[in-house]
Design a protein that fits this description.
With about 140 residues, the protein is α+β, with helices and mostly antiparallel strands. About 30% of the residues lie in helices and about 35% in strands. The chain has one domain: Nuclear Transport Factor 2, Chain: A. It is built from four helices and six strands; from the N terminus they run ααββαββαββ. Strand 5 and strand 6 form a beta hairpin.
Amino acid sequence: MTLTHGETTGTHGETTDEAAIRGLILRWAAAVHAGDLDTVLADHSDDIVMFDVPPPIEGVVGIDAYRETWPPFFHWQSQGACFEIVSLQVTAGVDVAFAHALLRCGSREELAARPDGRLRLTIGLRRQQGRWTVTHEHHSFPIEQ
């Protein structure tokens, strides 16, 4: 880890930016789990690009399109599905950062059939007007071989 621009390390060896981004992502995941759309959207840029598990294959572009993806997910989740981060790694530069995570995400039946199955999440962030904002999300499940 290289420290720049007066960064310091936290208790887990993270820079303060990495810790702030970790907090942002954990708040986002808790909001997804709670079905709290305002908090899900709070730290996303207006020009967010998301590649999600469901179509469209070309992704979702813009905060309005991103907003529209969540109500169906919240409905599915309200029927007992899980959305829980199990690992999260964050790397931050001066103005750009990324994170990758594995999540338990699925219905009770899906998780019972594949208890080790994980959703992959990659997040790209940009520092905008002094704060970190999510500009890219990619969600995917590995293809079974």
